[in-house]
Amino acid sequence: DRWVADIVACAPLSLRAIKQTVNRTGHLSPAEAQALRTPALVKALQSEDALEGVAAFQQKRAPVWRGR
């Protein structure tokens, strides 16, 4: 149950990107999957939620995810 709570606490935008990547790359080789994964990772790291995650960590508070 602890891992479920950990997943639920994550940013919805990141969870969506992970799910899409897994669904799109499950049949590919690791190298092919990595090539498709990189753009999704860059997009997630440039999101407002990524900034919120860093700010929340620095301020020692729970993040408020906005899905952007």
Automatic annotation (TrEMBL):
InterPro entries listed in its UniProt record: ClpP/crotonase-like_dom_sf (IPR029045), Enoyl-CoA_hydra_C (IPR014748)
Protein family according to the UniProt entry: Belongs to the enoyl-CoA hydratase/isomerase family.
Protein name: Crotonase
Species for this entry: Rhizobium leguminosarum
